[in-house]
Structure formats: C-alpha cells, structure tokens
Amino acid sequence: MDTHFWLIRHALVSELERARLYGIQDVSLCTDTLAAQVPQYRALATRLPRPAVWGCTPLSRTRLTAQAIFAAGYPEQELMVVPGLIEQNLGDYQGLPHADLPQRLTAPAHPFWPLAADERPPGGESMAEVVVRVGATMDELAAAHAGKDVVIVSHGGAIRAAVAHAMGIDAGRALHLSIHNISLTRLERVADGWRVVCVNEWPGM
Questions:
Q1: Of 205 and 136, which is predicted with more confidence?
Q2: Are 38 and 182 in contact, with CB atoms under 8 Å apart?
Q3: Could you please report the per-residue DSSP string of 6-38?
Q4: Closest of 99, 92, 89, 44 to residue 67, by C-alpha
Q5: What is the largest CA-CA distance in the chain?
Q6: In Å, how far from its chain's centre is CA 125?
Q7: Of 70, 75, 142, 200, which cross-links 3 as Cys (Cβ 3.0–4.6 Å)?
C-alpha cells in the first residue's frame, strides 16, 4: 500500500516579514505575489491528485496557500492540521533582523540557512532535531493514510527535513536543497522504504 506525498512550500511572505527571522511565528503573506502567481496555483490545481487527503501546518501562511490552490480550481478540501511539519522553531532568535543574528551564533551559519544544522537557538530547536521530528511525522502519516495521496502545504525547512528522512541524509546535507515558494516535492512510502520522486518542481514549468 504505497503512500504518495505531495509537499508544497507556502507562498512568499511579505517583504516586511522577510527582513527578520520568523521561524514558527504566524506572519502574513505577500499579497502582490499571491495575486501574481495565479498561473502557478492553477498549474498545481491541475497537477495535484484527486482524490487526496489534504493538510497544512498550524500557521496561516500554509492554510492560505492551500486556499489559493482551491480558488484556482482544485475542489475545496477539509484541511487536517499537521503540527509535526511546522517550520524550525528559532526560539529567542525569532523576530531578530537578519543582521543581528551572526553575533549570537556559537558556530558559523550554514551557507544556505541562517544557522548551522546542529545549532539550537535558545528556546528553539536545531535543524537536526527538525529532521527527527519531521521524519517521525512522515512515518505516522504514511501509516495512517496507506495507499492514498497526501497533499500537505508546509515550509522550506520542514520539506528539506522530509527529504533528508527519505534519503537517510543528515540535516547539513539537506540544507543544500533549494525549496522555492509554491514548489512541489514528491515523496513515496513504499514497501521497501522511502523514495524521492522530485524535489523543488516549479508548477507550470
């Protein structure tokens, strides 16, 4: 009973929010970008499987992205909330301007992430811990929805972590993956383990 996962990163957040570290804070989307990307939402509405189980994280940016796909032509679905696929908790660093972060770090930042994979912000979690948390959630979802298609709107860090779990790679290597806003990543849980179908597919291209 293969389980097929369709993971979508949420739409771009507002320019004001992008100027700081937001992690699991509930920040607003960029309304101009949301309107400009209607063709991509339509492409996703056509591309995504029907029927499917749909989910999002507790943060509004994932729910609003799912609703934009529904508005673009995919039949509206009930959204289960999946806390285990939320973004990395940056703890006390959330809300800081990006320029204020380096002086607080205990190790050099990852080239493609604000922190090293093993660095845990005060009151938060490391990306290595995110991989463990997301991996356990993906295993639970695969068991609960065996044989089904599961579409979940999530976050860049969590999707990298899901790929890391599927491939058995560490968080540092996973952070080299590029996960664009509104991109599609497909994973499958089959009898012999996890399989990666595609990563960072841009809808409509």
A1: 136
A2: no
A3: EEEEPPPBPHHHHTB--TTS---B-HHHHHHTH
A4: 44
A5: 49
A6: 16
A7: 142
d(CA 77, CA 5): 16
**Mean pLDDT within 142-155:** 98
Helix or strand or coil: residue 200? strand
What share of the chain has pLDDT > 70, as a percent? Answer: 99
Beta-bridge partners for 150: 5, 53
Whole-model pTM: value is 0.96
Going along 14-129, which residue ranges are E strands? 53-56, 79-81
Q: How many CB atoms lie within 10 A of CB 49?
A: 13
CA 132/CA 74 separation, integer angstroms? 32
CB 176 within 8 A of CB 113: no
Tokens standing for residue 45: 């509405």
Enter the DSSP assignment of 173: H
What is the pLDDT confidence band of residue 25, given thresholds at 50, 70 and 90? very high
Residue that is written with structure tokens 């499958």 in the block: 188
pLDDT averaged over the chain? 95
Give the separation between CA 73 and CA 119, rounded to whole angstroms.
42
| CATH match of 3-201 with 3.90.1150.10 | no
> What are the domain boundaries of the chain?
3-201
pLDDT of residue 74: 97
